[in-house]
Amino acid sequence: MNTTQEVEKRVTLATLKKFIRDNKDNLYALCKSNFDGMTDCVQQVKTTPKKVNPAVIDLENKHTLGIGQIWLVGSSRDWFKAFEDDVFQGINGSNSCGSWTLARIK
Question: Which of 105, 77, 81, 86 is nearest to 32 (CA)?
């Protein structure tokens, strides 16, 4: 059986959408890796966190939520984990198409 602490740490798609809604004016996205059709594999990407324009956020877009740096596969094939460092707090996501971080400045 899960402890209360384990349940609190669980991050789902609903958690991600709520995080985006609650932080849309202070949201940064970082693509760490993405799928490259030329090599038919996921490759690491060297980028810096980019501020997300609140006007492009579209929670109805099932694959990107309107945020170009992330890609969601759907059907429970996305993995989410809470993220925190000295500057940012947010969510790491990964799937068969790559990995990314969506965060806010503390």
Answer: 81
pTM above 0.85, yes or no: no
Residue-wise pLDDT for 20-63, tens only, equals 999 999 999 988 887 777 777 787 777 778 899 999 999 999 99
Long-range contacts (CB closer than 8 Å, 24 or more residues apart) made by 12-18 = 12/80, 13/72, 13/78, 13/80, 15/80, 15/91, 16/65, 16/80, 16/91, 16/93, 16/102, 17/59, 17/65
Give me the residue spans of the domains in the chain.
Answer: 4-105
Exposure class string for 52-89: b at 16+ Cβ within 10 A, else e: beeeebeeeeeeebbbebbbbeeeeebebeebeeeebe
Question: What is the Rg, in whole angstroms, of the alpha carbon atoms belonging to the chain?
Answer: 14
